[in-house]
Fold this sequence. Notes:
Oligomer: single chain
Helix content: 55-70%
Largest sheet: 3 strands, antiparallel
Strand order of the largest sheet: 1-2-3
Number of domains: 3
Amino acid sequence: VEHCKMPKIKKSLSSTLNALVNVYNDFTTGGQVLFCKYCEVVVSSSKKFQVQQHIQTAEHAMKKEAKTSAKQQALLPTTLSRPGPKHSQFNQDLCRALVSADIPLNKLNNKELVSFLEKYTDQKVPSESTLRKNYVPDLSNETLDRLREKPMACTGLLELARAVMPDVNVLLSTVKKVFLKAPSRKERFRQISDTVPLPPSPVVTRWGTWIEAALYYADNFEIVKCVVESFDPTASVHMKEAQNVLKMDGLREDLIFIRANLVCISSAILKLEKEGLTLKSSMDVVQGVVDSLSHLEKKDYFEKSARFLLKTKVTAD
């Protein structure tokens, strides 16, 4: 008797990423991309070995050790100090409401307001100093946690773009290989292109370099095509692939779309990666991306990421 084999059920992207997060504590995910908490970059997760390779890099180990040590040092004073006062849910909600409504905390110094609140809430209204000392820091940390999702959302949008525009991926990869360790080809490019720089070499795990490379091709498409097509197609497999992809219908349109709509994400990622960026400045950067991408909400392949950005909008105090 022949036994029928049950078909394998393909896991969703979200479940695959969550499974990797459960195995490797170095990562987080919002369901779209795998994000390294220590290196603060999106890590390619199509193959498990790619995740393992990232963990084994010296840069990852160094950044993990540095952040772990910093976290332990930050916890040390808290461990040695006496426990603070028990937090009140009413005080916490009141603090959040005042901050969200842009109402200065010093308004609680108004006796009429305090009397009104205590009369109709049957709660003891805290002083301004109590909220500022015991509740504002928690609210700030909560806001920062939400803000940390923003770079992930930005990179998630780029990963989605890469998934729906595969020809752009092939272009960036193959042309990079055409000129890799090929001085004679580089010289040919310089002779034909005059002042145009050589094609960039994007790094897969650095989204800023991916979009910068796409922008380069959007601006210099015809020159790159002219140079690459001047080479012997039998010179290498990569040469033939590069020449073929440059002839693909829709490639130029994809590059123009990236140039017209995704430049804001590239600059936002670079700004958010800077150390010492204030909370207000970070929020302004994210708000700029939200405003720029709001018109993409009806485009099917960007809808999910654009909605996520809009839904998790953070407002400043």
